[in-house]
Amino acid sequence: MAILSTPASTVRLASQGRPLKEHLFRIALLASLAIAMIFLVVLLVYVVTQGWSRLDLNLIQNFPSLRAVNAATAGVLSGIMGTLWVVALTALMALPTGVLAAVYLEEYADKTKWYNRLIELNIANLAAVPSIVYGILGLGVISRGFGLGPSVITGAITLSLLVLPIVIIAAREAIKSVPPSIREGSLALGATQWQTIWRQVLPASVPGIATGSILALSRAIGEAAPFLLLGAATLVRFNPDGLDSSFSVLPVQIYNLITNSRPEVQVVGAAAIVVLLAILLLMNSVAIWLRNRYQKRW
Amino acid sequence: MTSGQRRLSAVATAAFVVSLAAACGGGGNSAATSPEASAPSSAGASEPAAGLSGEIKIDGSSTVAPLISVASEAFGEEQPQVKVPVGTSGTGGGFEKFCAGETDISNASRPIKDEEKTLCEGKGIKFTELTVATDALTVVVPKENTWAKCLTTAQLKKMWEPAAEGKVKTWKDVDAKFPAEPLKLYGPGADSGTFDYFTDEINGEEGASRKDYSPSENDNDIVNGVAGAKGGLGYFGFTYYEENMDKLTAVEVDSGSGCVAPSVEAAQGGKYTPLARSLFVYPSTTAVKRPEVAAFLDYLSANIGSLAKEAKFIPLNAEQEAKLKSDITALKAG
Predict the structure, then answer these.
(1) Domain PBP spans what residues (chain B) (predicted)?
(2) Cβ proximity of B189 and B216 under 8 Å
(3) Cα–Cα 20 to 30 A to A37, which of A174, B8, B54, B191?
(4) Which residue range forms the structural domain that includes residue A39?
């Protein structure tokens, strides 16, 4: 941002007699950016061309089908609905918990105490744990231990645990970025710590928290590994109708469709990838919009 | 309310509404789903009572899943209130869930193992074995391969046995008559019933295989791997070969009484030894007491021929089909 906002005249002046090294560095920067962009474009073009013939309303209106008679109308409705159920429940469980944990760690925890430092270290480590490990946890403890079975609620709790460390870290960063002067001002005017947090700190950190949370949920939406372990079924021809319902999620269905031996089924898988990408891009756009809309500068 | 507070509650409300809308959308849309193309349902011998509801959880072998998925869909068109989700955790993974009481029916591409039986007995889960289709485990090579039209079981063992690891690297190592083309092996991973069956029949011990091959639970990977390497060789179920005949050649197998190509007739008639195998489903006897599960099994036995044809499986012969029917009748009575 800072470089872009430098006046053009200054840039022109500076570029005169610019050493070769600087040119090379610039090219290296552009090349790195190009690599990322090219792969994204190639991926998008590839899946859209692969799935183009089945990118229609049937895809989001009908249930999956392996029968040849339904080849032209099979969709991934149960996967979309399963994903929405699980992610909505995950948001309801993980966001409040994550934000409250972050408030504790930033505003209340005494960082000189060893147990608080241990908690911080553990949260940072948990954020890096592979999702399949959470799948094992979900299967062993939540599904079998608590007896919830391979249901929507099991999937949502597992995903909540998966995104919780990410939400906590994002929320902490957002809370940390609120200048201490705001807190001090509030306290000096006689507000209690609770009032300071609720009326000053949290509202000011909402954009950061919201952005971080949506990005964490975007990660959750793309997860297939924990669900494969939990036993989300691959052929599901009904939508979830409650917390204890069987379900499938979009990534699991995509995995199953793509690995099918019949080309017409693989096409549905490619089209489903486009749907998943569309949902992800939509969520990320909301995150960017929230950030820009509510960002505050001190 | 301060402006900051208003903003906080606005965002919180927005997030809440989005979540709720998503959750409610799930419930609301289920009623409005458009009907699927109706299928040519073959006349069932015993038409189950209309208006059943409930859920039949099925998991297990990915080899059997295409057949049971088609059955689940076709049954769902007759009984729209019965939910029949089908999972593909593999034969071993399926039995693990079945014996934990999480599923009602387990698909298997090999008979249940003794330790799995013990596991089920420990949980008080009783079951019956039903043979629903036949499979001819097919050994495939790419079209470019001109030398291996027929392989003996001894040659296959030489390629796949644990002792071959790091030693048998080219086709010449298998048989001096073959060219010195590098041998590239592809096969299913250790969680697969196909792997268990192949290693048992060819290497003489279940699970004993060389480890330096490319394993994949995804049969498409095996197809592409073998088709892309001149010296490639792999194995999987007959259905996959049928769908990829343009890319692959099936090797004839000689178990001592001449070369036999894998085919529907050879598998049904028991000539394709030792690689023809039965595919099973294991319903739990407790689950069969539920009317929807009994109705599903009735549907399966009444339509097994047409279902197998639609899913491109090798159908049961008349004798096996009669046995399936009597097994299901006995299961319901018991």
Answers:
(1) 46-300
(2) yes
(3) A174
(4) 19-54
Q: Indicate yes or no: CB of A61 within 8 angstroms of CB of B85.
A: no
Residue type, A295: Q
Residues B154-212 have pLDDT tens digits of: 999 999 999 999 899 999 999 999 999 999 999 988 878 889 899 999 999 888 999 99
Q: In chain A, which residue's Cα lies nearest the Cα of B240?
A: A261
Cross-chain residue pair B33–A84, CB shorter than 8 Å: no
Which has more pLDDT, B283 or B51? B283
Q: ipTM of this model?
A: 0.76
CATH number of the domain encompassing residue A283: 1.10.3720.10
Whether residues A28 and A139 fall in one domain: no
Burial class (CB in 10 A: 0-12, 13-18, 19+), A132: middle
* Number of domains composing chain A: 2
Task: Point out the residue among A70, A149, A232 whose CB comes nearest to the CB of B102.
Answer: A149
Residues B297 and B275: their CA atoms lie apart, in Å, by 27
Judging contacts by C-beta atoms under 8 Å, the chain B residues touching residue A246 are: 55, 57, 83, 85
Quick one: how many helices (H) and strands (E) in chain B? Answer: 13, 14
**Among the four given CATH numbers 3.20.20.70, 3.30.360.10, 3.40.190.10, 3.50.50.60, the one describing domain B54-134+278-333:** 3.40.190.10
Q: What is the dihedral of CA A155, A157, A161, A163, to 10 degrees?
A: 70
Contacts of B24 in chain A (CB under 8 A): none
Question: Are A27 and A141 contained in the same domain?
Answer: no
- The reply to whether residue A150 touches residue B102, judged by beta carbons under 8 angstroms, is yes
* B138-261 placed in CATH 3.40.930.10: no
